[in-house]
Design brief:
The complex is a heterodimer of chains A (about 240) and B (about 325).
Chain A lengths: L1 H14 L3 H22 L6 H26 L3 H6 L4 H28 L9 H25 L6 H15 L14 H5 L2 H14 L7 H26 L1
Chain B lengths: L3 E12 L2 E12 L3 E5 L6 H8 L7 E6 L2 E2 L4 H7 E4 L11 H12 L4 H9 L13 H11 L7 E5 L7 H16 L3 E6 L2 H6 L3 E6 L2 E7 H6 L5 E8 L3 H6 L6 E3 L2 E6 L2 H16 L1 E8 L3 H13 L12
Parallel strand pairs in B: 3-8, 3-9, 6-7, 7-8
Antiparallel strand pairs in B: 1-2, 1-4, 4-5, 9-10, 11-13, 11-14, 12-13
Helix pairs in contact in B: 3-4, 5-6
The chains are: A mainly alpha (about 240), B alpha/beta (about 325).
Chain lengths: ~240, ~325
């Protein structure tokens, strides 16, 4: 685990202030949340979605920014040449993305809490769902960043996944407001489980997925994306 | 003869239908600088990547420091330091932070960091991204030494460096070798090929076309030696008499291609008496590694150039 810790510290020092991480990982989710606050004022029902969007963009922007740089500058090969396993490299990337995403999504949460009418229902359940959301998104971001053959195209593909998810997950408008045929699309969207999990922790209700199922789905997706990332890394080198 | 520290047996790498390295076999002896020469795309870097565990081996076997590259990757990685053809340390980290990070990955003692910084006169507190290209390369070489490996792979270590920095890197290579390390050096820089390696291999289209000591390899392109001759007075009759040796001018000397030096010397003595001239200077030269390289790789490519040796025609 010392090697994983060393990689995490290195990543934070090296990539925290990279333009990709700042613009898409910090500025976009915060401005997006502020825009909704300014437009609606009473934003209770939007808070889980806004926090989830922050987690999604914070984690995926950080991990993709670091992987794009490392693949293009070939610093990734430094890790691969060292006596470090693929699993340790992927774990470090996922954890550092989770840490960065937690920072961004916690700031968003603290910001939007000021504009909520009702108090936050459960701090511990919210924190648990926040951690699971960030883990899921970080693992997904790592997988996408490694699965795309040309690193220049990673951010484009990532946005192709992230932007529609903001709508197909019920983050902006509840899935119950959509026609029935749309529900399966919502259920195959990883972000749906994050939004509903956070909705339960923050507001004490859920739209379509019960809280335990959301948590289990996020654990399953984290493991799945971790394994897929390891396989993608093996294929890449 | 010392024992092999790197051994490749029928080493092959395929990318789909394309064969980058085609069943090469060779050994590198402990404590030598082994030059691995080849034109761009010949398979040099792919070979290094296979031997260092950075890419999978399609077929064949490879052993480094006694460890099987396929089965004992971690042991191989602990035995080698790799200097790639790009200076790829982390730009936002200082030189010291970079080395400390790598020391943690290799579980090397932290004292190595301060010792290497001092020994190689590196600016410890300067960010890697702010260094000149020469210092970046120096830091990259030092990074490969953090765990004190017995084998160093260097892939085009002087590429894109100015003359002074390239000289500094060559001095580092020699120093590493003097300290007992085996250096596997891939290059297409002929100054390096001529001066650094104890033995060389030339690879072209994924196959080894020559291997051995420098002089052994030179002999592969024929037994001719070049005789450089300076005579006084230089007359057309002398040139005419030496026509069988393909005479050419290089500044104020005649350069001749000679197979049997003894027979040539006898003939020269006869000519001296007959035509009345003095020999001011005579020396013999083997073909340069560059000439051998071009000859072997051109033959393979079927692109033999014109006889004038690279004229613009």
């Amino acid at each position: 685990m010392m090697k994983v810790y060393a990689i995490i510290v290195k990543e934070l020092k090296e990539y925290m202030l990279k333009p990709g991480a700042i613009s898409w990982g910090i500025v976009f989710p915060l401005v997006f949340s502020l825009a909704f606050i300014a437009r609606f004022g009473d934003i209770d029902h939007l808070v889980p979605g806004l926090v989830s969007i922050s987690a999604l963009f914070g984690t995926t922007s950080f991990v993709s920014s670091s992987i794009i740089f490392e693949r293009r500058l070939r610093t990734f090969e430094r890790l691969l040449l060292a006596p470090v396993s693929y699993g340790e490299i992927i774990l470090a990337k996922i954890l550092v993305g989770t840490i960065f995403g937690l920072m961004v999504s916690t700031i968003t949460l603290l910001l939007v809490l000021h504009f909520m009418t009702y108090p936050l229902w459960s701090v511990s359940l919210t924190a648990l769902n926040l951690v699971l959301s960030n883990l899921t998104f970080a693992a997904m971001g790592v997988y996408i960043s490694l699965a795309i053959s040309n690193p220049i195209n990673v951010m484009t593909w990532l946005n192709l996944v992230r932007l529609p998810m903001m709508f197909t997950s019920g983050a902006i408008a509840s899935l119950t407001l959509f026609p029935h045929w749309f529900l399966p699309i919502g259920l195959v969207t990883p972000m749906t489980y994050s939004v509903d999990g956070l909705r339960y922790g923050i507001l004490y209700y859920y739209d379509v997925v019960p809280p335990l199922a959301s948590a289990l789905a996020m654990v399953f997706m984290t493991l799945l994306f971790t394994l897929l990332s390891i396989r993608a890394l093996r294929r890449l080198y | 003869m010392s024992e092999p520290i790197i051994k490749a047996v029928n080493l092959t790498k395929r990318y789909g239908d394309f064969t980058a390295v085609d069943g090469i076999s060779f050994e590198v002896r402990k404590g030598e600088i082994f030059g691995f020469l080849g034109p761009n795309g010949a398979g040099k870097t792919t070979t290094v990547r296979m031997l260092s565990g950075l890419t999978t081996i399609t077929e064949g076997e490879a052993y480094v420091n006694g460890y099987d590259v396929k089965k004992e990757k971690v042991k191989v990685k602990r035995s080698i330091g790799v200097v790639q053809d790009v200076s790829n340390l982390y730009e936002e980290l200082t030189v010291e932070e970079n080395l400390r990070f790598l020391a943690r990955l290799y579980e090397a003692p932290m004292e190595n960091v301060s010792k290497l910084i001092k020994d190689f006169n590196l600016p410890a507190k300067k960010k890697f991204g702010k260094l000149s290209s020469g210092y970046k390369r120096r830091a990259s070489i030092v990074a490969a030494l953090i765990h004190d490996p017995p084998v160093i792979f260097m892939d085009e270590p002087t590429i894109a460096l100015d003359v002074r920095s390239a000289k500094m890197v060559r001095e580092m290579v020699r120093a590493l070798n003097v300290s007992g390390r085996t250096v596997f050096l891939t290059t297409h820089n002929m100054v390096e090929a001529e001066t650094l390696p104890h033995r060389i291999a030339i690879i072209n289209h994924g196959r080894i076309v020559a291997i051995g000591g420098r002089n052994e390899v030179r002999k592969l392109v024929g037994n001719e030696v070049r005789v450089r001759l300076k005579v006084e007075p230089l007359k057309s009759s002398i040139i005419h008499a030496l026509e069988g040796y393909s005479p050419a001018f290089d500044e104020d000397s005649l350069v001749l291609k000679v197979e049997d030096v003894d027979a040539f010397m006898d003939e020269l003595e006869d000519l001296k008496r007959k035509l009345g001239f003095r020999v001011l200077h005579i020396s013999t030269e083997l073909p340069s590694i560059e000439e051998v390289f071009l000859e072997l790789t051109e033959e393979e490519n079927g692109e033999k150039g014109c006889a004038c040796g690279g004229c613009p025609l």
